[in-house]
Design brief:
3 strands, elongated, 2 helices, alpha+beta, 3-stranded antiparallel β-sheet, about 10% strand
């Protein structure tokens, strides 16, 4: 049985687990916030090895589990704010769900 076709203006909802990965393009505000959080962590735990939390790929994308992105940068995203990343977010979609 074929599913009925939907009008072009109909929205489709898909399930997405917050443990799945997303990627964003950080701006300087986002990079600075991640580095500030890393510095705060190292101040509380001085034996931690220094690291740069900003790990972008060659195209400028940085990957997170969705919950981790919300935890790290969500407090900076609200109406009227300067977002810490480009407003376009890419969601990882497994091959069997394409």
């Amino acid at each position: 049985m074929n599913a009925p076709s939907l009008p072009a203006n109909t929205v489709a909802w898909v399930d997405f687990n917050i443990n799945s990965r997303v990627r964003v393009k950080l701006n300087e505000k986002g990079r600075a916030e991640l580095r500030k959080q890393a510095e705060d962590l190292m101040r509380h735990f001085p034996k931690l090895e220094r690291f740069d939390p900003v790990m972008e790929d060659e195209d400028g994308w940085m990957s997170f589990q969705l919950w981790a992105l919300m935890e790290a940068l969500g407090h900076m995203v609200y109406v009227g704010s300067e977002s810490p990343f480009d407003c376009r977010i890419q969601f990882e979609v497994p091959n069997d769900q394409r």
